[in-house]
Automatic annotation (TrEMBL):
Family from the record: Belongs to the metallo-dependent hydrolases superfamily.
Keyword Hydrolase: yes
Keywords: Hydrolase
Transmembrane portions of the chain: none
Record organism: Phytopseudomonas punonensis
Domain of life: Bacteria
Protein name per its UniProtKB record: Predicted metal-dependent hydrolase, TIM-barrel fold
Length: 318
């Protein structure tokens, strides 16, 4: 067997949070919302860079990309200020995907404010829409909404990317978006959420991803592909990983942990060790693109150094 990748890693999608200090509607209180991994009570706790690095273990993570955490929607700038405070103390994250509601009346002002932060590179606003392939045609996502698209127009003004989280059956709308705004980099989260592993489900996912890949301004993150009730394993996910790379090319794919969310379905080593085994036969330069170079290029990470202080007064004590 080929040697496993042992080079530097930039984790292209993860979260930090402190629900004891800050308001995240889905992390607050005893009740849980419907979630693709089921009960997520285990992650309703503070999660800081020292927690992350303990999870990362021996994997050589040199930089990370923070993605917005559905913080209080009334205060998108507050989340960005908080995460920059975290970065100042810990050296991570090294790039930020911020919250912005593109259909809000103040979208232009919020995007301008987000872009002024040193580490903000992209924004995310989940566009909703059909919750299953059967619902396609009965409703549209916000990607087709005129007001939302006006907000999207503002991204290029500030040099911001857009992180898109939507299931594969909504990708025809994403294709329209990418084609209508060729100057804006679109980054698909979680490989288009291929949760239906039936023959029909995988066939639909593959066809939708192949069409999306025709848009040169689209990249994709392989993350968040765990299955509810099953521990993350190569056997379940290898085909998804390899086909995503075959469709988009190694130069447009990034690996990511989606931690701490994906700790619900596996350890950091399950996931990153799995990625390493799945792509062990690829040329070394392609492996480095997948694990490091593409994330560094697309998210322009500030510095490939993570420092973990022994103590931090940022963490909430309980």
């Amino acid at each position: 067997m080929a040697d496993l990748y042992d080079g530097p890693i930039i984790d292209a999608h993860h979260h930090f949070w402190d629900p004891l200090r800050n308001h995240h509607p889905w992390l607050s209180g005893a009740e849980n919302i419907p979630f693709r991994y089921g009960d997520y009570s285990a992650i309703k706790r503070p999660y800081y860079p020292d927690d992350y690095m303990a999870d990362a273990g021996e994997h050589q993570v040199v930089a990370t990309v923070y993605v917005e955490t559905e913080w209080d929607p009334r205060d998108p700038i507050g989340e960005t200020a908080f995460i920059h405070e975290v970065a100042l103390r810990y050296g991570a994250p090294n790039a930020v995907v911020a919250q912005a509601w593109l259909d809000a009346p103040d979208a232009a002002q919020v995007l301008a404010a987000q872009a002024a932060f040193q580490r903000v590179r992209s924004v995310r606003h989940k566009p909703g829409g059909p919750a299953s392939p059967a619902e396609v045609g009965t409703q549209r996502t916000l990607m087709s909404d005129e007001g939302w698209r006006r907000g999207y127009t503002e991204l290029s003004r500030h040099g911001l990317h857009f992180d898109l989280q939507t299931p594969w059956w909504n990708l025809p709308e994403a294709i329209e978006l990418a084609r209508d705004f060729p100057g804006t980099q679109l980054i698909l989260n979680h490989a288009g959420l291929p949760s239906d592993r039936s023959e029909q489900g995988l066939s639909g996912w593959h066809a939708a991803m192949a069409k999306l890949a025709e848009c040169e301004n689209v990249a994709v993150k392989v993350s968040g592909i765990g299955l509810p009730g099953r521990r993350w394993c190569v056997e379940d996910n290898a085909w998804i990983v390899r086909e995503t790379i075959a469709i988009f090319g190694a130069e447009r794919v990034m690996f990511a942990s989606n931690f701490p969310v994906d700790s619900l379905c596996g350890s950091f080593d399950d996931i990153y060790g799995g990625f390493k085994r799945i792509v062990a036969d690829l040329p070394r330069h392609q492996q480095q693109q997948l694990f490091h170079d593409n994330a560094r290029r697309l998210y322009r990470t500030v510095a490939d150094v993570i420092r973990i202080p022994e103590l931090s007064d940022l963490r909430t004590t309980t």
